[in-house]
């Protein structure tokens, strides 16, 4: 059994395989939803929920990994100190975020301390496929959906973007950031152009909610029409992720993650 002060590992050798998802004739449509900051990713999720979709916010799923009483909580407190715990007994995510934001080594330390994010996300998608029928729609919303490979368990990958000027205004007006803070957050984002070749649907949300809703519903209707014909979905993600892994072998190694064909770095 893993002790509270022992960094966990997903498996001795991380699984990078891309196994075909179950047929859409027997399994729900699972959409992976990613996007840049202030692009309206969560609004897209809301629109899909209004259409009856099952929705999971991966951030909230991950937060449960270090709720009080879990091994992840003990490891996070040991790694970052007791002052990251708020008055309510939970880890204060704002305090913790300030410790790791823009610091890759600290972010890697947090990831190791929390536990298996991969297992949590895959477990939720597996539950959907086991419990829900083929007429259902499910949405896994995650900021970091693509680079870790979570999108490989989804039938389609959607990517929502927005022009920086509009994103900056939204951050200042809706998240109480000043211009310097907004610019810092924007600078930390992976550019849309890097991810877009791996997404099956890309939408730049520079307009109104009505325009966004119309576009989302049109794309969902297109996918549901494909399902009715009996055809299987085709996704661009697998080829994109394979290329991403190859280009980022050294960075993965530095983070303690073994790329395909390599032995993992031991903690």
Describe the fold and architecture.
By secondary structure, the chain is of the alpha/beta class. The chain has a domain at 29-66 and 128-241: P-loop containing nucleotide triphosphate hydrolases (Rossmann fold), CATH 3.40.50.300. Helices cover 46% and strands 10% of the residues. The chain is built from twelve helices and five strands. The chain has helices spanning 41-50, 58-63, 71-80, 93-100, 104-114, 117-131, 164-174, 179-188, 192-195, 209-229, 237-247, 249-254, and strands at 29-35, 54-57, 137-141, 156-161, 201-204. The chain has a five-stranded parallel β-sheet, with helices on both faces. Helix 1 (41-50) packs across helix 10 (209-229). The longest helix is centred in the C-terminal third of the chain and has 21 residues, at 209-229. The model is unreliable at 1-12 and 263-267 (pLDDT under 50).
């Amino acid at each position: 059994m893993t002790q509270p002060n022992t960094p966990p590992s997903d498996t001795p050798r991380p699984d990078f395989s891309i196994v075909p998802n179950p047929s859409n004739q027997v399994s729900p449509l699972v959409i992976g939803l990613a996007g840049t900051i202030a692009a309206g990713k969560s609004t897209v999720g809301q629109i899909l929920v209004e259409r009856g979709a099952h929705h999971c916010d991966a951030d909230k799923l991950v937060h449960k990994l270090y709720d009080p009483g879990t091994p992840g909580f003990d490891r996070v407190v040991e790694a970052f100190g007791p002052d990251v715990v708020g008055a309510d007994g939970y880890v204060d995510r704002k305090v913790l975020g300030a410790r790791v934001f823009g610091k890759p080594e600290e972010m890697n330390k947090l990831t190791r301390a929390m536990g298996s994010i991969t297992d949590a996300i895959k477990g939720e998608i597996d539950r959907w496929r086991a419990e829900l029928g083929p007429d259902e729609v499910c949405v896994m919303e995650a900021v970091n959906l693509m680079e870790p490979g979570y999108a490989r368990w989804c039938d389609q990958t959607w990517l929502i973007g927005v022009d920086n000027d509009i994103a900056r205004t939204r951050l200042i007006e809706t998240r109480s950031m000043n211009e310097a803070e907004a610019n810092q957050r924007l600078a930390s984002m992976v550019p849309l152009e890097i991810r877009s070749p791996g997404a099956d649907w890309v939408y730049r949300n520079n307009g109104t909610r009505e325009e966004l809703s119309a576009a989302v519903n049109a794309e969902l209707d297109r996918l549901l029409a494909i399902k009715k014909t009996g055809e299987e979905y085709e996704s661009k993600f697998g080829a994109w992720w394979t290329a991403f892994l190859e280009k980022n072998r050294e960075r993965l190694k530095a983070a303690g993650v073994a790329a395909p064909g390599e032995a993992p770095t031991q903690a």
